[in-house]
Every structure is written in structure tokens, then in C-alpha cells.
């Protein structure tokens, strides 16, 4: 694995870890919206996924970021079935 790939995986892990730590609070405060994380920090929360991604692209200069929908785990599981 190249150094660049290793760095990307590390950033994804860091963003996912922060998302999982904040998920319950974010779901309570922003249910149904989309949260974007970059470098282990919450970048934005939007109602619209396109707006969230566009904001993230501008903020991160198109770098790798993580997008999480703010639904409870039960709601997410029900939507996958």
C-alpha cells in the first residue's frame, strides 16, 4: 500500500471515529440532516446532501472527507432492508 493510500485510510478512520463518537448528539440536534467530517472535525451540517458535499469541497479544497446521514442506527437498518 502506498503512503498516500495509507494516509487516506487514516483520515477516513479518524473521521469515522469522530462521527461515531458524536452521532447520538448530532442525531438529537440535527435529525435527518447530513454531517461532513474532515481531519477529525465536524465541517458542516446541512439538510441537503448536495449542499453538504459542495460546502465540504470548498472547505477542504476537494480533499477526502466523510459524509454521514444523521439517522438513528435503527432507522438506518430499516432503510437498508
What is the structure about, briefly put?
This protein is of the alpha+beta class and 81 residues long. The chain has helices at 3-30, 49-60, 73-80; strands at 34-38, 41-46, 66-69. The protein is globular and about 35 Å long.
Question: Which key phrases capture this entry?
Answer:
3 helices, alpha+beta, 81 residues, three-stranded antiparallel sheet
Describe the structure.
The protein has one domain. 59% of the residues lie in helices and 19% in strands. It has helices at residues 3-30, 49-60, 73-80, and strands at residues 34-38, 41-46, 66-69. The protein has a 3-stranded antiparallel sheet with strand order 2-1-3. The longest helix has 28 residues, at 3-30. The radius of gyration is 13 Å and the shape is globular.
What structural class should be given to the helix and strand makeup?
alpha+beta
CA(first)-CA(last) distance = 34 Å
Number of helices: 3
What kind of sheet is the major sheet? 3 strands, antiparallel
Q: How big is the Rg? A: 13 Å
Query: Helical proportion?
Result: 55-70%
* Unreliable residue stretches: 1-6
Which descriptor suits the 3D outline? globular
How many domain units? 1
Determine the mean pLDDT. 84
Beta-strand proportion: 15-25%
Number of strands: 3
Encode the helix/strand succession as letters.
HEEHEH
Biggest sheet, spatial arrangement of strands: 2-1-3
Amino acid at each position: 500500500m502506498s503512503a498516500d493510500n495509507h494516509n487516506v485510510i487514516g483520515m477516513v478512520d479518524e473521521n469515522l471515529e469522530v462521527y461515531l463518537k458524536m452521532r447520538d448528539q448530532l442525531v438529537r440536534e440535527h435529525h435527518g440532516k447530513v454531517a461532513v467530517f474532515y481531519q477529525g472535525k465536524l465541517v458542516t451540517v446541512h439538510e441537503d446532501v448536495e449542499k453538504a458535499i459542495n460546502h465540504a469541497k470548498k472547505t477542504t479544497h476537494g480533499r477526502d472527507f466523510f459524509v454521514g446521514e444523521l439517522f438513528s442506527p435503527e432507522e438506518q437498518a430499516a432503510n437498508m432492508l
